[in-house]
Design brief:
Helix content is 71%, strand content 0%. By secondary structure, the chain is mainly alpha-helical. Helix 1 packs antiparallel against helix 2. The termini are far apart.
Length: 93
């Protein structure tokens, strides 16, 4: 969990940069893999947890520091990371 928190802190520092940059994508990969480990590889459970902690518009964060702006940035990073990974898999076939 400490590694995930360190990665989240790194993400908050890089928010002024594009979530599609190569640096952001490296961080997205680390974040995705570490959070998936916490949920023992269960992507559905990870997705469900992510939705549960997402603050509604204008509401306080459910998890301290995980405001809607940070979560939206992470969503963009991870979505692009997963799309790139899927595209690479299709190219390999």
């Amino acid at each position: 969990m400490e590694e995930v928190l360190a990665i989240l802190q790194q993400v908050s520092y890089m928010m002024p940069a594009s979530p599609y940059s190569s640096e952001a994508q490296v961080v997205a990969g680390h974040l995705y893999e570490k959070t998936l480990e916490l949920f023992e590889g269960d992507e559905q459970l990870l997705d469900k947890y992510w939705e549960l902690i997402r603050p509604a518009n204008g509401e306080e964060p459910v998890v301290m520091g995980m405001d809607s702006e940070l979560m939206a940035y992470i969503d963009e990073m991870i979505s692009f990371f997963l799309k790139q990974r899927e595209d690479e898999r299709h190219e390999e076939k």
